[in-house]
Amino acid sequence: MSEPNDKTHLVDRITGHRRMRRIRKAEWTRRLVRENRLTVDDLIWPVFVIPGDNIEEPIPAMPGVSRMSVDRLAEAAKKAEGLGIPAIATFPNIELEKRDMSGSEILNPDNLINRATRALKKAAPSLGVITDVALDPFTSHGHDGILTGDEIVNDATVDHICEAAVAQAEAGADIIAPSEMMDGRIGAIRERLDMAGFQDVGIMSYATKFSSGFYGPYREAISTKGLLKGDKASYYIDTANGTEALRDAALDVEEGADMLMVKPGLPYLDICWRIKEAFGLPVFAYQVSGEYAMIKMAAERGAIDGERVMMETLLSFKRAGCDGILTYFAIEVAQKLAKS
What we know:
Blueprint: H1 10-15, H2 27-32, E1 43-50, E2 56-58, E3 66-69, H3 70-83, E4 87-92, H4 112-123, E5 128-131, E6 146-148, E7 151-153, H5 154-171, E8 175-176, H6 185-195, E9 202-209, H7 216-221, H8 242-255, E10 259-263, H9 269-279, E11 283-287, H10 289-300, H11 306-319, E12 324-327, H12 330-339
Parallel strand pairs: 1-3, 1-4, 1-12, 4-5, 5-8, 8-9, 9-10, 10-11, 11-12
Antiparallel strand pairs: 2-3, 6-7
């Protein structure tokens, strides 16, 4: 029998007196039980570097992002360092006349990417520098490897990128992040770096780089969009394949990768989670150019609250098990977090 003043509601009986909204009712309780947080320590800032001096060139497909000459990039790096961003990832847009079928300019110790690394280490010594050894910014055909006929040849490409990795380490790169998805590249790069005395240079593997439609603005940023012949499906992972992606990541782990990356990010949160659960290594998502552009352009049209969606998507990577995110929003987010 119920008491005369019993205020038990039907909802209490249905839920067994368990009400999820109790801990949501106030801002302080929501903060107290929040499971994931985004901090400046989670951010890696991808940047585009171009030849010349005192140049900052907006990229139309990526509102708010510019290609920068080495001197301007060095100044931007000081700002990133001051905001507490841990690392910067560099991508070059070299002169078209320096691009050839084999991407030979990547082997030049004084090429654009290596000059940028030296300038960054001088300007912002505590900022980590992450470099890519994929050939697409250096080839005349826009592919990530050496093209022979209609085939991207695996082993010759691996030889090429191993030499490039050593040159990038000599320039001061802290982490090599190979994105070209050739078989055996992680183990080969690790061996070559160690032989050259760079045991402390890490490898962040693009462990699961999918054959995605989200890369378009990036290809505009490095001027490969009009060069690309065919597609990259013969070496990137099919967007339908999750189990294959885990097998790819497992091989990179066996070959000595220190960190694993999932690219793109938001469409592959399931892969982030599965890789973190399977291997326990640090996992990073790359919120790629297309993801960034969609948010920026939708916000410009008034369709979404751009700042809110920016933070929500970045937090989703943390919830999916990521230790950090490569994002073009890095500076904007770091500034917002500094005010909060």
